[in-house]
Amino acid sequence: MAVAAALVVAPVSSTDLPSGFAAITSKIPNPWSAFRNLTGCHFGEQQQGVAKVKDYLSHFGYLPQSSSGFTDLFDADLEEAIKVYQRNFGLNISGVMDAPTVAQMMAPRCGVADVINGTSTMGGASSHVHGRNLYTYFPGSPTWPRSRKSLRYFITQTAATTIDRATLSLVFERAFARWSAATTLNFTEAASAKDADITIGFYAGDHGDGEAFDGPLGTLAHAFSPTDGRFHLDAAEAWVATGDVSRASSDVAVDLESVAVHEIGHLLGLGHSSEPGAIMYPTITSRTRKVDLASDDVVGIQSLYGGNPNFKGVAPPATSSRDMDSGAGASSRPWSALVAVVAVAAGLVVAL
Predict the structure, then answer these.
(1) Could you tell me the residue range of the domain that residue 234 belongs to?
(2) Catalytic residue flag (residue 211)
(3) Region 187-204 average pLDDT
């Protein structure tokens, strides 16, 4: 079971940041903001904060856990872990904490690891040039039994959120429907937790599953692989369940449905994808809506459960910067420009 070169640009606000990256200006800190101080750090250096990078990479599976604690020495193991991370996210594979890598690490993301038991659950973005799909599964490819076409879910923990239960029900109903539209599965809200296959709740900090939440714009949520059925959201996030999240008053607003669609993918057996436009890409920026399955998501889920003969195909990619998510920008702007804008917002320098 797995848990689940500086460019001259106009000032960048959180709503203008390219998708897939955090709102990482000084006004919007997150648990990984200090990584910007390590820009350019490389093998052989000893610098305060390197241990925190090791903690980060260990949490997401790129390094084994350390029983004695990590040191601030940039060693060979860290260099190799960063190379794997860079490969997964389509970055230049340098093993150095360059500005694009720092910017990517500072992005809010799903808490499910990218590497589980030494196996990457991301396809490696370099594979895409060969026409390969980038969806992945958890080790062992766990799924719900083929005989189970109907799954029930229940919202169990709502005390830590101000969103009313009726609104939550509507959000999760829409999120599940996006997956049922493409597959042979269907989902209904159960009357109680004991009747449910999937349980959903909002939690703060350490909540007993070994995957403590870390506050706004860090780890947003996590879900477990089949057939565990647990789906947890960080109650500390400024969740938006109604209206246009891009116009939210809070710069740290996170679209609830967007995160829910991603985590449901994990509940059904999908791992992370290296395809930036996919729902199963690990990161999403604040004030961004991303709810439509991409081709990569559809092929992946249909390979597990079969396809719905009534499925009308995927929606065209978004073109508005406010609607773009972690991948839409990749098709509308050169990757170097994406990184440069993010880096400028973070006070970093990118060598292009």
Answers:
(1) 150-324
(2) no
(3) 97
Is 128 annotated in some ligand binding site? no
Q: How far apart are CA 196 and CA 211, in angstroms?
A: 22
46 and 86 assigned to the same domain: yes
What's the confidence (pLDDT) of residue 70? 97
**Are both 103 and 164 inside the same structural domain?**
no
100, HSE (Cβ side, Cα atoms, 13 Å): 22
Q: For the whole model, what pTM was predicted? A: 0.85
110 is in an annotated binding site: yes
Determine whether the annotation assigns residue 209 to a binding site.
yes
Q: What is the CATH number of the domain that holds 172?
A: 3.40.390.10
Is 237 domain-assigned?
yes
Same structural domain, 276 and 162: yes
pLDDT band at 28 (very low <50, low <70, confident <90, very high): low
Contact (CB, 8 A) for 318 and 188: no
* Residue 59 parent element (H or E): helix 50-59
Please report the pLDDT score of residue 315 as a whole number. 75
Domains held by the chain: number: 2
- Residue 150 above 60 pLDDT? yes
